[in-house]
Amino acid sequence: MAKTAGHQGILAKVASKDYYSVEDILKTARDLDEDPFILILNELTDPQNLGSIIRTADGMGAHGIIIPKNRACGITPTVAKISSGAVEYVKVARVTNIARTIDELKKEGLWIIGADAEGKNYFEVDLTGSIALVIGGEDKGLGKLVKQKCDILVRIPLRGRITSLNAAVAASILGYDILRQRITSHGQTI
Questions:
Q1: SS3 at position 135
Q2: CATH number of the domain bearing residue 75
């Protein structure tokens, strides 16, 4: 049943994972009476990155994740394993065109924030309100059209010699700052 020995002696048989719609994700936020917080992963191809981001998205309270149908990793057994089960709780929508989806999210009032090395230091950016955080693929980043569609580009300041971070790490850093700002803007503590 298990294809690898790295399962820690535990297996579960689950039904194949269905994808949700973008509307399902927005409805989740509305039902909770919260500003939407969505992650958009543009052409992310590494299943370990996707699984890590799904797990982290659950922890940071994101309402869902949007991925493209083509040129990207979908939900696979590896993704499910790396997510440590979070794939059962986080809504993932698969869309034909990320740029068009961004336009639709803007019509719904979401602010589109792209992670890019040429962006503004994220320490200086208000990350509250209705937000879709766009993380680019491992090889090409956001891509030209998606980058143009973003309302603002933000960067994570790096002090070492390496000029970029792993996609899952960048999503985690920025996503948790979105959570921090949302909580503190409402007078709560983390």
A1: strand
A2: 3.40.1280.10
